[in-house]
Amino acid sequence: MILESHSFLLVILGFLVICKSQSQGNVHYYDFVLKEKSFTKLCSTKSILTVNDSFPGPIIRVHKGDTAFVTVHNQGKYGVTIHWHGVREPRDPWSDGPENITQCPIQPGTSFTQKVAFTLEEGTLWWHAHSSWTRATVHGVIVILPANGTSYPFPEPYGQETLIIGEWYKGDVMQIINSALATGDEPITSDAYTINGQPGDFYNCSKETTYRFLIDYGKTYLFRIINAAMNEELVFGVANHNLTVVGIDAAYTKPLNTNFIAITPGQTMDVLITANQKRGFYYIAASPFYDGTAMYDNTTTTAILQYSGNYTPPSSSIPMPILPALNDSGMIFNFTKSLRGLASQDHPAKVPTNVTRKIYMTVSMNELPCQNPNGSCLGPNGTRLASSLNNISFQIPQIDILKAYYWNISGVFSEDFPDQPPFFYNFTGDTRSNTLIPSTGTRVLMFDYNEVVELVWQGTSALTAENHGMHLHGFSFFVVGVGTGNFNNVTDPKSYNLIDPPEVNTIGLPKDGWLAMRFVANNPGVWFMHCHLERHASWGMHTVLIVRDGGTMQTSMVPPPKYMPPCS
Ligand SMILES: *[C@@H]1O[C@H](CO)[C@@H](O)[C@H](O)[C@H]1NC(C)=O
Ligand SMILES: *[C@@H]1O[C@H](CO)[C@@H](O)[C@H](O)[C@H]1NC(C)=O
Ligand SMILES: *[C@@H]1O[C@H](CO)[C@@H](O)[C@H](O)[C@H]1NC(C)=O
Ligand SMILES: *[C@@H]1O[C@H](CO)[C@@H](O)[C@H](O)[C@H]1NC(C)=O
Ligand SMILES: *[C@@H]1O[C@H](CO)[C@@H](O)[C@H](O)[C@H]1NC(C)=O
Ligand SMILES: *[C@@H]1O[C@H](CO)[C@@H](O)[C@H](O)[C@H]1NC(C)=O
Ligand SMILES: *[C@@H]1O[C@H](CO)[C@@H](O)[C@H](O)[C@H]1NC(C)=O
Ligand SMILES: *[C@@H]1O[C@H](CO)[C@@H](O)[C@H](O)[C@H]1NC(C)=O
Ligand SMILES: *[C@@H]1O[C@H](CO)[C@@H](O)[C@H](O)[C@H]1NC(C)=O
Ligand SMILES: *[C@@H]1O[C@H](CO)[C@@H](O)[C@H](O)[C@H]1NC(C)=O
Ligand SMILES: *[C@@H]1O[C@H](CO)[C@@H](O)[C@H](O)[C@H]1NC(C)=O
Ligand SMILES: *[C@@H]1O[C@H](CO)[C@@H](O)[C@H](O)[C@H]1NC(C)=O
Ligand SMILES: [Cu+2]
């Protein structure tokens, strides 16, 4: 009898524990209606693909620990997928979204529900389409507030604002990339950058709609800044005001006082700004940082920081922030190097020290033979532009890799992406190496559950040297080292920061430089890794990481949802 009531109690206790763990976060439901909508910008009107008629799209606002179920209803013209950028999606690659990597496209007239589980992330992330170039107009902010009962590791800001920076093309983005891929040439550049959908005062026909943010003197605000541009790293600043970076990619950082930030496509940064200047109007501005050789959009987008109260509005000149020069690599490099993870008692940096797998990966611009029937392409010497990781230009399959892996469908990918580049040479000095022309294939990196990975990305100058915004799905990683030139695997690890490195999901790999990162492969599934500069991605600068299941249910992928979009 005593025994029985004991076990009864245990059952009750167990039930309570389950209830407790389930009630930790709230559940949110969102419907995203994908459809075309006309917008007039830069004096011309065009139809773009949007979510719910808005550009940028709706904001998802949750607390850490919450779960969102998002149902995407495709009422557009072509198949699209949606990705939750920076959300780890533990054990659940089925909801991650990259086209033909974890799912086939959601076809027009159909819908698909994704489960977005917010676990460790806190700060700012974003969602975007992950099919060809559709993300140019299909994207929005994700705000992850501290869990109920916890707060920011800095004084509660008086107000908050999201600033998502986009890139606007007068033409149709799908036509632009398809025509570039057909000719082998660089895609044409964009016509404007935008802040919250508005180009700002420096563009024609834009002054009336410039984005404005009203602030109260003496108060501190949290700006959540996202670089959603397609192809350019950006610098961002606010005239006469300092910025204090407090978070990147939904992880807190040590406060960094600066007058500009450098932000690569895909990155998010949380900055504090105090309204401590004379009441007035001040420009918020973003312009590209570019030190490659290709054509780029060198325009500047602006919004206005406007103090509240009674004062005479400025008649003409609004002050502009002083931003680094378009090609000031040193400044950008220094900014990236000065970022530190918070590494506090409440937000410890669990930097892996016991590395079990070392990967060295070259990141290159390349060329491939022309495939046009008339035999001539517009890339260098009549070739077509390409790009690669470890000299492999990745081919996107027609059946998603996750499906092929889960159901053992052979012939879709091979498990032999190498841990080393095929040739060692002076990667950052030799422009005409034997790696100018890469191999092609769908080769993936395989990991056992819990492998402790150190991955070094090595920029090369095979065709041209450029910066790259490297992004990994399914994980955040610690940036333990960054440097110029070739990585030296004996001396460079000695200067790693294993104490308070920033924890990110996207990072700018400097031109002709290297970057070392670490993570534990404890998220079973199929995870895309790619350059977030969209034209580089279109040319094959990606691969896939597959983390095998561990031995238990808790260390294995969850089964697929009842419905996954079919492959055609
Ligand atoms: C999008 O629009 C649909 C249909 O009008 C609506 O039901 C839904 O709530 C909207 N979603 C968001 C996130 O605003
Ligand atoms: C937050 O927690 C407090 C008590 O700790 C509770 O009263 C409140 O309902 C919670 N709010 C939400 C949104 O869960
Ligand atoms: C603005 O319009 C003028 C007159 O049409 C044109 O010359 C100029 O290039 C345009 N500027 C921009 C930034 O588009
Ligand atoms: C910006 O930061 C510098 C260095 O800490 C400081 O000297 C300066 O007063 C700050 N300016 C503003 C406008 O807060
Ligand atoms: C931007 O590029 C255009 C075209 O190459 C050039 O004419 C212009 O001077 C450049 N502007 C700036 C600010 O560099
Ligand atoms: C940046 O460009 C300017 C003008 O073209 C040039 O004078 C300067 O040397 C360049 N700086 C760097 C760091 O390349
Ligand atoms: C970058 O930092 C180094 C070392 O602190 C310094 O010597 C150099 O002048 C800085 N470069 C720029 C462009 O700020
Ligand atoms: C490091 O990893 C190896 C291999 O997994 C293991 O044998 C060893 O015990 C680990 N050491 C520490 C200090 O964790
Ligand atoms: C183009 O061809 C010329 C002549 O064969 C060669 O010298 C040059 O390296 C080639 N350039 C590229 C980028 O392939
Ligand atoms: C993905 O696969 C579908 C067929 O299932 C194909 O129509 C589509 O073009 C593929 N997408 C890419 C980016 O290759
Ligand atoms: C690699 O090439 C660069 C640029 O030519 C040169 O400065 C550097 O010394 C070379 N490194 C080695 C190890 O040869
Ligand atoms: C270290 O680099 C050298 C070339 O510099 C290479 O031959 C060697 O394989 C590398 N070792 C490891 C463990 O990556
Ligand atoms: Cu790139």
UniProtKB/TrEMBL annotation:
It holds the Pfam family Cu-oxidase_2. Its main location: secreted. Residues 1-23 form the signal peptide. InterPro entries: Cu-oxidase-like_N, Cu-oxidase_2nd, Cu-oxidase_C, Cu-oxidase_fam, Cu_oxidase_CS, Cu_oxidase_Cu_BS, Cupredoxin, CuRO_1_LCC. Residues 36-147, 162-310, 418-549 form the Plastocyanin-like domain. It is found in: Secreted, Extracellular space, Apoplast. It catalyses: 4 hydroquinone + O2 = 4 benzosemiquinone + 2 H2O. Its EC number is 1.10.3.2. Lignin degradation and detoxification of lignin-derived products. PANTHER family: LACCASE, MULTI-COPPER OXIDASE. This is Laccase. It comes from Glycine soja.
